[in-house]
Specification:
globular, about 325 residues, alpha/beta
């Protein structure tokens, strides 16, 4: 595994809006210079985050509160969205995706049908051209009847799409040396929606990323038993850092250099759990948290990962 690199963390305000602000400011300054309003020497420095540079993989772990949403930008320009936060952050998410240059989502993955993962997905599908949708195959007894889930299914149908089931071992997308593969779920009847979570592994050169949704110990044991290569430079911890996920054998198999935990400020669930943080610390993993550091961006050139934390309002 290649040794990663990391930018100095920057203090910036407010999650998704922070990302929008830096992009908008850079655009305004560029326009002013082009019109002759600003002298050439006042060209702004590059914003903290921009659309992925050609030949790189960029992963944005968005600050969407007590929820999950990640965007993968592939080296050839394809975009994959994994989860979409809740309905309360859907407008910010859509605007942020547009600011990152997203016009088409080549693939949208709903890891599992809980509102903190699919709450904003119907709106996202309505707002963008979408190439395909992947969801887990959930048993009839566990299929939710929530309005949020119904809205998602309606949005998929209205776009003339159908949801493809996540099949372990299937390669969802391969582009310019980067490949996205399904590792879970490996059963068809769990009794807990969290364990139906679609788990994905992204590889690019010597670097790799693991996206685990809310997969818990049961699913982690199945992945270990299946013999999948779980190693990853960056681990998106399962279930917002809950103690029900990131079990010691699973963490050992992943061996991450960095971990990202997506959770809300002072959330009612106590995420991330102190036990999980202790396990990560003992393993020498550097932890990034959206509740403390806002949106997290990872960039890979195939020979090392650079991690950037956008920061949050100190207040």
């Amino acid at each position: 595994m290649a040794k990663g690199r990391r930018y100095q963390k920057r203090s910036r305000k407010g999650g998704l809006w922070a990302l929008l602000a830096v992009l908008a400011a850079a655009a305004a300054l560029w326009a002013g210079r082009s019109l002759g309003v600003l002298p050439e020497q006042e060209e702004p420095s590059a914003p903290a985050v921009a659309p992925a540079a050609e030949g790189t993989v960029q992963v944005c772990y968005f600050d969407v509160g007590q929820a999950d949403a990640e965007l993968i930008q592939f080296p050839g320009g394809s975009n994959v969205l994994i989860d979409a936060g809740t309905s309360s952050t859907e407008d910010e998410l859509i605007e942020t995706l547009r600011s990152l240059g997203v016009e088409t989502l080549d693939l949208v993955v709903a890891t599992h049908p809980h509102a903190d993962h699919i709450g904003g997905m119907a709106a996202v599908i309505e707002a963008f051209d979408v190439g395909g949708v992947v969801m887990p195959r959930v048993s009839d007894s566990d299929t939710p009847t929530t309005k949020t889930y119904e809205n998602l299914l309606e949005a998929i149908m209205e776009k003339g799409l159908s949801a493809a089931p996540a099949e372990p071992g299937a390669e969802l997308l391969s582009e310019n040396g980067a490949a996205l593969t399904v590792l879970a779920p490996n059963s068809e009847d769990y009794g807990d929606l969290n364990n139906y979570s679609v788990v994905l592994r992204l590889t690019f050169g010597a670097d790799s990323f693991l996206f685990t949704g809310d997969a818990e110990k049961e699913s982690e044991e199945e992945m270990l038993g299946a013999g999948f290569d779980l190693s990853a430079t960056v681990l998106k911890c399962g279930h917002h850092g809950s103690e029900t996920s990131t079990s010691p054998p699973f963490l050992s198999a992943v061996g991450p250099q960095y971990a990202v935990i997506s959770c809300g400020v002072d959330n009612d669930y106590g995420h991330p759990d102190a036990v999980t943080l202790e396990k990560l610390s003992a393993a020498g993993v550097e932890v990034f948290r959206t509740d403390l550091q806002g949106t997290i961006v990872a960039v890979s050139d195939g020979a090392g990962v650079t991690m950037t934390a956008l920061g949050k309002d100190a207040a």
